[in-house]
Amino acid sequence: MRALRVLRPSGGVMRGAELLAIATRRLTSAEVPDAGRDARRLLAHVLKVPPGRLTLFLPEDVTPELEVIYHTLIERRAERVPVSHLTGRRLFYGREFLVTPEVLDPRPETETLIEAALALPFHHVLDLGTGSGCILLTLLAETHTAKGVGIDLSPEALNVAYWNRNALDLGDRADLAQGSWFEPLTRTKATFDLIVSNPPYIGVDEMAGLSPEVRDHEPRMALTDEADGLTAYRHIIDHAGPFLSDGGRLMVEIGPTQGAAVAEMMRAADFQQVSTIPDLDGRDRVVLGVKATK
């Protein structure tokens, strides 16, 4: 891979604008999508300035130490390491979350699930496959009084969720547990009026077509079920009943081609008011079902 080539001015120190131009060309040559945007985000990160105010700092000289750090990050981005893994942070629903290679990178599409969940009040929420905790913690932060539980099979992912929970000062309202789906709750009598999940839904035959940022740098177990992409939905829908209060909602994020199949699973399990909710691009993104009231 061709390394970043830097031509220093005679004074030996480069301005931010010069570094940004070189970095943008490097990322463009590496066929990184939105090369200019990523170069700016990484420079703002290195300079420790808000991305929206970076332009004010571009005429300033950049110290050689920060220049080295910036060039290193640009080279790693050229290798298709996600920006969030380089900065350790990702913005989601207006809040900043710690992100590591052990968790899925929070995506704007998942905000559709947040909006749908917040459409009606709830008091006790369960997040299955919580990962970074971005869904659970966002829902709790937006409601102020609700409490919730996040479950994940990966202890490394839970470490990230713990960090985000504490950073958002939600330790008194968010419990986290390690285990497979509902398993940590089997010895309890806990019920929830809202259950949410963004489970692994990519079919194993679709993995090769993912972008390098996703395929090579995000946890495989959070991406695919190594089958048809529907395994998690079958389990969640079949086992949700005892943990969902009468009239409670089950909401799952889906791949854009899975709406009909997942909605049919919910109807077969006697969920009521089953509906599919599109994201901002008009693609099926969330399937919702309501547990019948006895």
CATH top level assignment of the largest domain: Alpha Beta
How much strand?
15-25%
Distance between the termini: 64 Å
Alpha plus pi helix count: 11
- Overall 3D geometry? elongated
Radius of gyration: 22 Å
The helical percent reads 25-40%
Number of domains: 2
Overall pLDDT confidence: 94
Low-confidence stretches: none
Largest sheet: 7 strands, mixed
What is the CATH topology classification name of the largest domain? Rossmann fold
> How many β strands by DSSP?
11
- Give the second-level CATH assignment, the architecture of the largest domain: 3-Layer(aba) Sandwich
The secondary structure category is: alpha/beta
Order of helices and strands: EHHEHHEEHEHEHEEHHHEHEE
Secondary structure elements and pairings:
Elements: E1 14-15, H1 16-29, H2 35-47, E2 61-62, H3 64-78, H4 83-87, E3 89-92, E4 95-98, H5 111-118, E5 124-128, H6 134-143, E6 147-152, H7 155-167, E7 174-178, E8 192-197, H8 212-215, H9 220-223, H10 231-239, E9 244-253, H11 259-268, E10 271-278, E11 284-291
Parallel strand pairs: 5-6, 5-8, 6-7, 8-9
Antiparallel strand pairs: 1-2, 3-4, 9-11, 10-11
Helix pairs in contact: 1-2, 1-3, 2-3, 5-6
Report on this structure.
The protein has two domains: 14-79; 102-291, Rossmann fold, CATH 3.40.50. With 294 residues, it is α/β, with parallel strands linked by helices. It contains eleven helices and eleven strands. A hairpin with a 5-residue loop joins β10 (271-278) and β11. The N and C termini lie far apart (64 Å). 35% of the residues are buried. The protein has helices at residues 16-29, 35-47, 64-78, 83-87, 111-118, 134-143, 155-167, 212-215, 220-223, 231-239, 259-268, and strands spanning 14-15, 61-62, 89-92, 95-98, 124-128, 147-152, 174-178, 192-197, 244-253, 271-278, 284-291.
